[in-house]
Amino acid sequence: MTKTESADAQAAVGAVLASLIHDQRELHLTLPGVGTLHARVLNVDMAARRFVVECVGAVQALATLPADSHLLAGEASAVIDDVALTFAIDVPRTAADTFAADFPAGFRMEQRRAHFRVDTTDYAYVAEARTVGGDTVRLRIADLSASGVGLCSDETNPDLLPVGALLSDATLHFGTLASMETALRVVRHQASDGPDGIRYHFGCEFVGTQARVLG
């Protein structure tokens, strides 16, 4: 690998780490002899090729290890747009709850979604559903696949649509094409920075085979 290719590879690594900050993604930090801790990336230094991680409880967890331990070869994982991302990370035995680490050499990526997903953000499609508490909400349809639909809203927060919630009378409106009545189950949440503040994303799966297309 030439110096230019190496620099490009490191820039790509830094961009992925920076996206974890921008999209507010949680890291799962797995350390030998410790277990899995919850963490997040706070800062990325492209010039130094290092990044800062906050891992609440790291000090207490690392204190249980033998004093002669220096660097722990751990593994960090996150999910970006249904792609499971895993990379190696060396954690100092004396790390505080916030610590710096070198850029990983690369990432392992695995597509978690079973079906191809179509991005519908630009089509102004909307979904109407009734919450567990009986309120009716309208959300934008961000993507669609054979197994489910992605919804987003600047107003409807996860408290109204918790993971596991069953929306038995949801209606998906696809502009002038058609509408579809179906049942949905919320399977994941995600928050990101929108133009007017936090934007909430809801991953939903189709439930049963009772979907009905309306003219």
From TrEMBL:
<keyword id="KW-0282">Flagellum</keyword>
<dbReference type="Pfam" id="PF07238">
    <property type="entry name" value="PilZ"/>
</dbReference>
<dbReference type="InterPro" id="IPR009875">
    <property type="entry name" value="PilZ_domain"/>
</dbReference>
<keyword id="KW-0966">Cell projection</keyword>
<feature type="domain" description="PilZ">
    <location>
        <begin position="111"/>
        <end position="210"/>
    </location>
</feature>
<keyword id="KW-0969">Cilium</keyword>
<protein>
    <submittedName>
        <fullName>Flagellar brake protein YcgR</fullName>
    </submittedName>
</protein>
